[in-house]
Amino acid sequence: MHQLIDKKFKIIIYLLFLLILSTTSREFIENQDNYFFKINQINIEGLSNKDNLKIYNELNILLYENILSIRKKEIQKIINQHNIIEELSIKKIYPSTIKINIKPTSFIAKLSGSDQLVGENGKLIKDKENVKVLPYIFGEFSSKDFLIFKKKIVLSKFNFDNFKMLYFFPSKRWDILTYDDILIKLPQDNISDSLNLAYKIINSKDFKKTTLIDLRMNNHLITRK
């Protein structure tokens, strides 16, 4: 009887030992996993060293967070505050690295009376170091206004390299001055067709030395030498 009790006691002790060991092992593994998946490196490429560093400093709040719980949208929200961004790709490299590649927007115009440039993305970017010759834009416009107009230009035979100045009016109408000093007055609608007509007139022998092409009225063409 005594031996039976000793045997039961040993079994209980053995089971308790296994329980303690399994609990400790599980906690150790969980702690290791948590440490293993902590973000300890953020690599940013694509912009100038200065801009890369600026964005890196803003993303520092993500360091030592669990890489599994961080959503890419959180990172995009921080980076997209910078108007210079055209495209963005984010990769999680497990266990602990985030790699970010940024494509900066191209500058296609200057805002008159300012050190701000207009990007392909329609946003304004401050850049005092730019030396590229760009057309000036006059008037107050939104990114939406500009992107709509840019799309019309892309669909036409013109490109921004042909323009010296662009004027935006409160009526949401655009005028263009070419590098040949020809002023094109565009209507509010049918912009691509009007641009193509202006292009045809400029390259026609019948309209040599034209300085003004007024297309504001439907089915009416006014030119001036």
TrEMBL record:
Question: GO biological process: what's one of them?
Answer: cell division
Residue ranges constituting the Cell division protein FtsQ/DivIB C-terminal domain according to the UniProt record: 113-216
Every copy of the POTRA domain together lies at 37-103
What is the name of this protein? Cell division protein FtsQ
Per its UniProt entry, which superkingdom is the organism in? Bacteria
Q: Which Pfam families match?
A: FtsQ_DivIB_C (PF03799), POTRA_1 (PF08478)
Keywords recorded for this protein, A-Z:
Cell cycle, Cell division, Cell membrane, Membrane, Transmembrane, Transmembrane helix
Tell me yes or no: is Heme among this UniProt entry's keywords: no
